[in-house]
Amino acid sequence: MLRAILPKSLYARVALIVILPIFLMQAVVTYAFFERHWDSVTANLSRTTAGQIAYLTFLYEDAASENERLQLFETTLEIMDISIRFVEGDVVPRDNKLSPFNLYNAVFERRLRDRINRPYWLNTQSWPGYVEVRVQLEDGVLVFFVLRDRVFATTGPVFIIWLIGTSVLLGSIAIIFLRNQVRSILRLAAAAEAFGRGRDSIEFRPTGATEVRRAGRAFIAMRERIKRQIDQRTTMLAGISHDLRTPLTRLKLSLAMSPTAADLEAMRNDVAEMERMILAYLEFAADAAATEAPAEVDLAALIDEAVTAANSGNEMRVQTLDTRRVVIEGRRTSLRRALDNLIGNSVKYANSVWVTLRIDEPHVEIIVDDDGPGIPEQVRETAFKPFERLDQARSQSTPGVGLGLTIVRDAARSHGGDVTLHESPRGGLRAIIRLPT
Question: What is the pLDDT of residue 392?
Answer without folding.
Answer: 45
